[in-house]
Specification:
By secondary structure, the chain is α/β, with parallel strands linked by helices. The chain has helices at residues 22-33, 45-54, 72-86, 112-140, 161-181, 199-203, 209-217, 228-239, and strands at 13-17, 37-42, 61-66, 91-94, 143-148, 186-193, 249-253. A seven-stranded parallel sheet has the order 3-2-1-4-5-6-7, with helices on both faces. The protein starts with 12 loop residues before the first strand and ends in a 12-residue tail after the last strand. The structure holds NADP nicotinamide-adenine-dinucleotide phosphate. NADP nicotinamide-adenine-dinucleotide phosphate binds at residues 17-18, 20-24, 41-44, 47, 67-70, 95-98, 121, 148, 150, 193, 195-196, 198-201.
Length: 265
């Protein structure tokens, strides 16, 4: 279970989108372990129930809500719930992301609906959640927004136009929001994971996790892929007062992949 020396999120209200599985799940548990009240938003109800159960015995708590965060109504509903039940929102983790296997196509073959879906889930959700959460954070005297982008927002590969555009957009949105809300004491940051052992990544190897670990290892100078907890611990640090002078910045958590610069793939 992730914990980070000096992090104490008791009485803090945290929303994590796509919190049912993978990186989001580990992030929900990391914040609950640090004492926070965590609202986990996801589409996968059994996974949501599982993350709630996994938090039993931790000092904080996790509440699950079914929410499609690509829609304004769902995003507003999550923020409204946190305000009504926990008095506000202190930390927003815009983590949700999809990369459907049938989206790996050159742009001219990609259905427009697939482009819209990926951009709406991966990028627009970050805008919508911020639209409703930022005023609430301002009222409370500040907050932290962390966006899960990707190394694929910095360098790209063939066949991932909407995913790469959504992640590049997330990095740009991070800088933009940081400037807009710096005077309101809202810090906005992004994390760029390398390949992380999650259901999303495992879909690419037919849910064969051993194959994912073996195939992914070569791309990362550390010789292995990452674990969801290794992203969650960075989220926890960025949201903590230990990172109090950081905003508008991204952190690569990729086992050294981006250090390869133009050779990263
Ligand atoms: P994951 O294992 O697929 O978990 C994401 C969760 O989000 C799933 O439970 C999914 O439910 C849910 N979700 C999908 N669409 C949603 C929506 N519209 N509203 C609410 N919830 C929704 O993903 P992950 O690998 O942990 O990825 C988390 C983030 O990290 C994403 O932004 C991803 O792009 C980014 N990332 C991941 C990697 C990696 O290697 N894993 C690398 C770089 C960046 P369903 O399964 O039911 O759709």
């Amino acid at each position: 279970m992730v914990n980070f020396a000096g992090t104490d999120f008791r009485d803090k209200s945290v929303i994590v989108t796509g919190g049912g599985k993978g990186i989001g799940r580990a992030t929900c548990l990391a914040f609950a372990n640090a004492g926070a009240k965590v609202l986990c938003a996801d589409l996968d109800d059994p996974a949501g129930a599982d993350v709630v159960a996994a938090a039993s015995g931790l000092s904080g708590e996790i509440v699950y809500q079914h929410a499609d965060v690509s829609t304004a109504a769902a995003c507003k509903g999550l923020v409204d719930w946190a305000v009504a039940n926990w008095g506000g929102v202190d930390v927003l983790i815009n983590n949700v992301g999809i990369q459907p296997l049938n989206s790996y196509l050159p742009a001219h073959e990609l259905p427009e609906e697939m482009w819209d879906r990926i951009i709406n889930v991966n990028l627009k959700s970050g805008f919508l959640m911020t639209k409703y959460a930022a005023p609430v954070m301002t009222e409370r005297g500040g907050g932290v927004i962390i966006n899960t982008a990707s190394v694929q927002g910095l360098q790209s590969a063939k066949g991932i136009a909407p995913y790469a555009a959504s992640k590049g957009g997330m990095l740009s949105l991070t800088r933009q929001l940081a400037l807009e809300y710096a005077a309101d004491n809202i810090r906005v940051l992004a994390v760029n994971p390398g390949t992380i052992e999650t259901p999303l990544a495992a879909a690419g190897t037919g849910n064969d996790y051993e194959k994912l670990r073996q195939e992914g290892a070569a791309a990362h100078p550390m010789g292995r892929i990452g674990k969801p907890e290794e992203i969650a611990s960075v989220m926890l640090f960025l949201a903590s007062d230990s990172a109090s002078f950081m905003t508008g910045e991204f952190v690569n958590v990729d086992g050294g992949m981006m250090a390869k610069g133009a050779w990263a793939e």
